[in-house]
Amino acid sequence: MGSDIVLMPLRGLSGVRSSFHYSFAFLPRSQRDALKAVYAFCRMTDDIADSPEVGELNRRVELLRKWREELESAFHGRSNYAVLNHLSAIAKRFNIPVMHFYDLLRGVEMDLTKNRYATFEELREYCTLVAASVGLMTLEIFGPRNARTREYAVNLGIALQLTNILRDVGIDGSYGRIYLPAEDLRRFGYPESDLLARKYTPQFRELMEFETARAEEYFQRARALLPAEDRRAMFAPKIMERIYFHTLLRIKQADYNVLDHEVSLPRFLQFLIALKYWVKQRLLGR
Questions:
Q1: Potential cystine with 159: which of 148, 177, 219, 224 (Cβ 3.0-4.6 Å)?
Q2: Residue spans of alpha helices (H) in 95-234
Q3: Residue pLDDT, tens place only, 179-230
Q4: Sign of dihedral through CA atoms 77, 83, 89, 93?
């Protein structure tokens, strides 16, 4: 594996100025350091699949295969990559099941071999692999008391990934990827060719309204599943939940037009959301 891959986590860590950064900011240092190790692994894995610096598809597939081998070496001995050795130490310290790391790899592999989803069931599987897996990786770092909190993490991960997909419909289309289920495009009479041409039509608006409502359902399901005794422990994921939910609201406020306009949440608003929740949690304990 070449040095171009070795440098990727450095870019990932220096670019933590995101919703992850603001959700981590108020945590104890030991938890922040553990979460950054997981985040570095996730960013590096994602970069292998998406970074233009990596090259053609065959090279991406080969690098991801080698990355999987290095991950296995880290868990069973010692990898050639410090980021994976550190990840292995964190996984052992916090008793993180290693299957979640392999699930993420499976999800990223899907991005290399699959650019259409026939049904929502297929899309939900993808979201579970690439996003819920991350929630489950970090769960033990937060130290929940109730086993039901696992379902909170899974549903929140799906909600976050659906929000990403809705926000990036136009961008993904420019790369030939369509995550919105084909069954939904047919249901609302919005052809794939219109999406690839970035045509904002009444049919697209209705499609996006439907998909946004579905994402909201996963946010609501996650909130309902979080046991009261774990609200304090899941402080950082709750901040993520609020930031992403506000992004979903922005999509609605833009009348679902993510094809002609970039929808995002400014960093200062992300910080204010995190600060507001921190104050609320400190004062009210929830």
A1: 219
A2: 99-113, 120-127, 133-142, 149-167, 169-174, 182-187, 192-196, 202-225
A3: 999 999 999 999 999 999 999 999 999 999 999 999 999 999 999 999 999 9
A4: negative
Contact 107, 124 (CB under 8 A): no
**Are 270 and 19 a contacting pair, CB within 8 Å?**
yes
What is the extent of the structural domain holding 49?
1-96
Give the predicted TM-score (pTM) of the model: 0.87
Spatial separation of the C-alpha atoms in residues 266 and 249, rounded to whole Å: 13
- Asked whether residue 176 carries a pLDDT value surpassing 50, the answer given is yes
Question: H or E segment at 270?
Answer: helix 267-284
Contact 112, 57 (CB under 8 A): yes
Domain shared by 133 and 173, yes or no: yes
* Domain end position, chosen among 64, 96, 128: 96
